Amino acid sequence: MGLDSHASLFAPPPPRADGRVNLAGLSRDELAAAVTEMGEPAFRAQQLWRWIYNAGETDFDRMSNIAKPLRTRLAERFVVARPAESRGQHSFDGTAKWLLRMDDGQEVETVHIPEEDRGTLCVSSQVGCTLTCRFCHTGTQRLVRNLEASEIVGQVMLARDRLEDWRAPEGERKLTNIVLMGMGEPLYNFDNVAKAMRIVMDGEGISISRRRITLSTSGVVPMMQRCGEELGVNLAVSLHAVTDELRDELVPLNRKYPVKELLDACRAYPGTSNARRITFEYVMLKGVNDTLADARELVRLLDGIPAKVNLIPFNPWPGAPYECSTKEAIQRFSEVLMEAGYASPVRTPRGRDIQAACGQLKSDSVRQRRARPAVDSAVSAPI
Ligand code: SAH
Ligand code: SF4
């Protein structure tokens, strides 16, 4: 491709305070455009791509197959940066949480949950969330904005740095899976999430397969088809209730996209099969949605959908209007599902000592700015 054909593709992100532009987070096309605008041949973009996304290199001077004068020119215009880390916390059980500060001072959290056969990174898609699910603390946060693609990829890159994962051989990687289950509704920021996931999935870069990525949505029905077609990632749906009446209250988005429409969109989700099921998330709220009748109705609703159900013990936060169901209630609920043939694992709380639970993420990043230390809570191991 010639110079001109790339020129229109590169709308560089706003430069940082030092006037340089961050290359981490650029797509292949954008990187190619940035390079050709400097008068360099296109293969340089390929070299940079591998350094940035495959080797995790941040210093142009260590990019050994790029001539020294060009390294200097690159460093004058560009950086390869990560979001700033405000705080990193490590649980006794290996769970790690990083509070990240973006260039405008806004903060989000990223959590790494190691398990025997995998390591999952829980990634945020927005600062806060515009939706107001009643059991979720993130939904009470006033300040909300979409994260840029670079800020989403930046979470993954920072985690790879901290886990010293860039050079680890394939079978020894600590970060193998991604769940878009942190702060925010990913389907309300689809373009940036999609761009970020394309970068993450690229086989010559970070190379995490779409089969190891799960996007969780509260039910943004009109975006689900696109998500399946364009990204092909696993889908998790935050169902939480089996009637419109209750779901209207718990997940107010239900008033726009009621249960039937949501389940129809699940039936139509591309690429679903018995080997590749949709995960339904169901938060267990004492005396609200946890009866045997609820479980049986759930079985009825899921009929015909290759599904598994993830039961999430409710993680309380100060002032929350709910309590977590009893262990026995969760157990009984799970048994009904299993008898009907649905795997229904209960999410195990992890890293209780570093407060990073589903739906509690607001508390920490907001509290961090006011006072330390934060209160105790729990982190849940996703799927
Ligand atoms: N916005 C998306 C993804 C982020 S929330 C969504 O709602 O799906 C990730 C999961 O955490 C969702 O299933 C959500 O319902 C659940 N969750 C939120 N608050 C919670 C809480 N207090 N306790 C347990 N799970 C919670
Ligand atoms: Fe937003 Fe998800 Fe929390 Fe609902 S549960 S408020 S959609 S982050």
**What count of helical segments does DSSP give?**
12
Which whole number gives the mean pLDDT?
A: 89
Describe the sheet with the most strands: 9 strands, mixed
Taken as a percent bin, the fraction of beta residues is 15-25%
Shape: elongated
Question: Which key terms come to mind for this protein?
Answer:
383 residues; alpha/beta; TIM Barrel; 9-stranded mixed beta sheet; disordered N terminus; disordered C terminus; binds iron/sulfur cluster
How would you describe this protein?
This protein has helices at residues 3-7, 28-37, 43-55, 68-77, 149-162, 190-201, 221-231, 244-250, 259-267, 292-301, 327-339, 361-370; strands at residues 21-22, 78-79, 84-90, 96-101, 107-114, 119-122, 126-127, 145-146, 177-180, 213-217, 234-238, 278-284, 307-313, 349-350, 379-380. The protein is α/β, with parallel strands linked by helices and 383 residues long. The chain folds into two domains: 3-7 and 17-79, DNA polymerase, domain 1; 84-371, Aldolase class I (TIM Barrel, Alpha-Beta Barrel). The strands form four sheets. The protein has a nine-stranded mixed sheet, sandwiched between helices. A two-stranded parallel ribbon has the order 1-2. A two-stranded antiparallel sheet has the order 7-8. The longest helix has 14 residues, at 149-162. Iron/sulfur cluster binds next to loops. Iron/sulfur cluster binds at residues 129, 131-133, 136, 138-139, 184-185, 218, 238, 359.
